[in-house]
Amino acid sequence: MLNVFNTADDVLTALAEYFVILANEAIKKNKKFSVALSGGSSPKKLYELLATSYHDQVEWEKVYFFFGDERNVPQDHPDSNYLMAKKALFAPLMIEPANIFPVDTSLEPKEAAKKYQEEIEEFFDEDEQSFDLILLGLGDNSHTASLFPHTPVLHDRVPGVSEVFLQDQQVYRITLNAPLINEAQNIAFLVYGEGKAIAVHHVIEDDEDIEEYPAQLIEPIVGDIQWFLDEAAASLLRHK
Ligand SMILES: O=C1O[C@H](COP(=O)(O)O)[C@@H](O)[C@H](O)[C@H]1O
């Protein structure tokens, strides 16, 4: 479902409220809420908003934080998704380390992916369900998480975590693959700014071409998917 708002601030507020509703529902039902955070440039303001305006609206000690993807850099590197979330969300809310599951980027990428998959499997072993919420962004090249155009991970068929080598940047990333993302109870894309309009159009309305538009792989099996867009990002959509 598409949710289009006038401004980026409106989008962020709507997604923060959606997060709070899902968290409280899951905590009421299962006594915990599991979320995989997105990285990159878009979600920082969302995390800051949750940590300030919504700090007293969730039992944060019952929230378990994972990452949809991670750069293969140390946890104190400026490109680290973990570092961004730590500064914007974990530190202000004083989240206990036991509730945070960062990717172990001290390992070789393949090993880091394997270990992260094992941690996820162990966490969900008891209740046999997947994430309550996976937050995603959308790159202007139509990647989401670290599912980049023309990378082998696009052909993963078994839910898991994979390493991805980006030829143009000569760097690795670690990512949940599409089958694992699609097991989530809820998936929310956060996309704002005119720079994302072409990608939004391709992913939502263009013919299927997963090599070019990997975010088209995201189709929850039984869960719900919501797009949170501003007018600028939605400007090339024919149907809103
Ligand atoms: O889902 C995600 O999307 C972004 C792209 O977002 P951007 O705001 O940086 O353009 C991606 O790179 C990020 O790591 C990921 O979690």
Give an account of the 3D structure:
The protein starts with a strand and ends in a 10-residue tail after the last strand. The chain has helices spanning 8-30, 44-52, 81-93, 109-124, 178-181, 197-205; strands at 2-5, 33-37, 63-67, 69-71, 133-136, 161-166, 171-176, 186-191, 224-230. Strands 1-9-8-5-2-3 form a six-stranded parallel β-sheet, with helices on one face. A three-stranded antiparallel β-sheet has the order 4-7-6. It has one domain: Rossmann fold, CATH 3.40.50. With 240 residues, the protein is an alpha/beta fold. The chain binds ligand LXAUTJHC. The site of the ligand O=C1O[C@H](COP(=O)(O)O)[C@@H](O)[C@H](O)[C@H]1O has 13 residues, from loops.
